[in-house]
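User: Could you walk me through two proteins back to back? I'd like the raw sequence and the structure tokens for each, with a short line separating them so I can tell where one ends and the next begins.

Assistant: Of course. Protein one, sequence then structure:
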Amino acid sequence: MSAISTLLKQENITLTKISKQFNIPRKVIQRALKQKPDAWSPKVLNAFATSLSKTPGELIALLLPDTYVLEINDPNQTIQDVYIEDKETYQQIRFIVESEHLEGWEPTRTEIEFLLNQALEPNLDLQNEIDQIWSADHD
């Protein structure tokens, strides 16, 4: 029995219920039970996650614990569960995180907190050090 099957069984969630609720053919759901979660379509992943009261990222992290998940929640203005109150600051940090994530960075909650703290209260010594490094590289 697959891990997702076990989770659904524990919560008394049937394939028929998921099929009807999310308008996904039962055969598609049955096939997904035999696949690895990273092979699921977004629609199937969302159906399983919503049925289990989880975000897709939470479900993937639960089923594939060695898989890194970047959690960005626009309605709640959170990145890696770090709440960023100011909308403009949230958008700026989100842009940086997404850009660097595409380059391979997998930020932790602690790193997002550091970015937020730097945005709210910049460390001038750190900024001067970065400026020196950039100017040395471009001489």
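----
Protein two, same layout:
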Amino acid sequence: MKKRLPEKIVVVSVGRHTRLGDVLERALEDVAFETTEADALASADFRNRRVLFAVSADQSGVNTVLRALTAALIGAPDCLDGCICALIADGEQGGAVQIDALRLLLAANMAGALIPPKSLLESGAGLKRFSDGRGTPFERYCAAARALVERLAGYEPVSADHPRVRLATLLEDGAANDWHKLLARTAADVGGEFADSTEAESTIMLCENATGLPDEATLSLLDGSGRIRFWIASPEDGSELYLLALLERACVRGSYALAPRGVAVFDGLNAVEAIADQAEAVRIRKLSLF
């Protein structure tokens, strides 16, 4: 008999399931779970739970129900406090879903949820990505879904008696020094410690959106683990796509967990202007670090 996983999971159903229903049946075998519809999530008390979004894409790619759920979570900023969330997105009907799936994870984070590593499993119509290796593509898809469920049920957030935070940034010279000093003071104010070591429990990634998408040098800073927060100085438009690219690299392909409410965007300001602006400097010192 398979070992029963310890944490009960809330499965949030989004869209019309055909293939995904069969996948979930296998992935949730011997798992304690309950199912709710998308329109009930923002109005019910699901705090401090493990939440699995099960999304079947619209054939047209419009994903009406998924986008409505994302908007509802943005409008209910505390409804997922203490939750840990992951997502399975199925594209059997051929509709695109990746960007909308990332937006949903980001909205869940804004509503108080932690997003663990390897938090999104996406499939296309033909299951091409599951075609290598032993077993049929469908069997490998089910195995990947099961692995995601096990990660979600068993994930334990990192905690420490004396938390350490580090700054990951491409800023140089005076700008970098100013941010290091501010972060060190802020960490000390809340009983933590600023550290240059990659062994720190928490990482603040500070970057500038000047081109609409992060470059490879920026993405290379995401080869680590632990909790992460994104602080984005955005003098140019397009901060959402920039942020979604960071989320995909760090928490979907990478080994970082996005801390609850782990994003701060400084719209219309570069990194130097953000720290020099008195109101923004006060805001920065109020942001959670761990």
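The longest strand covers residues 255-267.

Let me know if you want the two compared in more detail.
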